[in-house]
Amino acid sequence: MTKIVFLHIPKTAGQSVHAALVNGFGEENVAPARVNEQLARMTISELNRYKVFSGHLDWSLLDCIKGPKYVFTILREPMDRILSFYFFLRQEAAGLSPEELESPGRAGMKAALTLSAHEYFTGGPPPIRSFLNAHYDNFYAYYFAGRHYLARNALHGQLNRGIISRDRLLEMAHDNMSQLDGVFTVEQMPDVFAAIRRHADRPILDDEKYRTNVNKAVPRESRKDLLMGLGATQGTLRKIESYCDMDREIWQKHVERSQKN
User: Fold this and answer.
1) What is the pLDDT of residue 47?
2) Are 4 and 69 in contact (CB under 8 A)?
3) Are residues 100 and 219 in the same domain?
4) Per-residue pLDDT at 215 exceeds 70
5) pLDDT at 258
6) Are 160 and 169 contacting, i.e. CB atoms less than 8 angstroms apart?
7) Please, how many CA atoms are within 13 Å of residue 108, restricted to the half-sphere of its CB?
8) Number of structural domains, the chain?
9) Cβ pair 17, 75 in contact under 8 A
């Protein structure tokens, strides 16, 4: 029996994929841990009772899963992913009550809604900077190089001190990604669902049935203009571009490889 591990990067159609996995394997066979805090509360024997692991999870923590595995992830053009994440947080925050918005766990959402775009991406209090650094700053490069969700915390300092070079970090990321069984893009969702169908215990729905969390209110082509209207400057865009620096190389290399295949 092949087990499934879906390494969900934020804003890469993960909710759609998770829904398909639940349909294809049954909720009882999908590990309830969707984030590392939940994963850490499960023993190795408990984890090995499940067939499917899907969420914002440390890749390295899933090495203890026994038996053959199909491990895959999905990428999105880096700038598009960051802007989608930002507008998603604003949309979610706008739907909360004032009391809910003040909850400590909603600090990132509150910042996206209440700070200007420039302050959000370039300033803000330390907890917000930590959130942005962890989730926006070259997430692909750090995640795949370090194999855990907050790998930037361990690797960024080494990069700044010259202990590890930019080229070496990218080499590590590419090498680790080559060990994955599937690396898709959001433009390849039919291939993602086809892979799930090949491994699933039961039929899943038609692909279009899984389209969730699509932000129709903020279409892709208008996001930069809307960002400028929310107080972004050219300096803001340069900051976001810096968040895409290494990730864009990973993205381009993967797209080129996919086109050759």
Assistant:
1) 96
2) yes
3) yes
4) no
5) 81
6) no
7) 15
8) 2
9) no
DSSP per position, 189-254? HHHHHHHHHHH-SS----GGGG--S--TTS-GGGHHHHHHHTT--HHHHHHHHHHHHHHHHHHHHH
Same domain, 137 and 253: yes
The predicted model scores a pTM of 0.93
Q: What's residue 121's pLDDT?
A: 96
One domain for residues 16 and 123: no
- Three-class DSSP category at 74: strand
> Rounded distance, CA 204 to CA 81, Å?
27
In percent, the amount of the chain with pLDDT more than 70 equals: 97
Kindly report, residue by residue over 132-183, the tens digit of the pLDDT.
999 999 999 999 999 999 999 999 999 999 999 999 999 999 999 999 999 9
Rounded distance between C-alpha atoms, residue 173 and residue 140, angstroms: 8
Same domain for 140 and 250, yes or no, is yes
**Which residue range forms the structural domain that includes residue 63?**
3-76+180-210
| DSSP-assigned letter for residue 101 | H
pLDDT at 113 over 80: yes
Do both 168 and 189 map to the same domain?
no
For residues 141 and 200, membership in a common domain is answered with no
Averaged pLDDT score across all residues of the chain: 94
Please report how the helices 126-135 and 107-114 are oriented relative to each other, as an axis angle in degrees rounded to 10: 100
Write down how long the chain is. Answer: 261
Query: Are 229 and 256 in a shared domain?
Result: yes
CA distance 9 to 76: 9
Query: With contact defined as beta carbons under 8 Å apart, do 86 and 38 qualify?
Result: no
* The token pair that represents 133 in the structure block: 């650094």
DSSP 137: T
Answer yes or no: are the C-beta atoms of 241 and 80 closer than 8 Å: no
Same structural domain, 31 and 53: yes
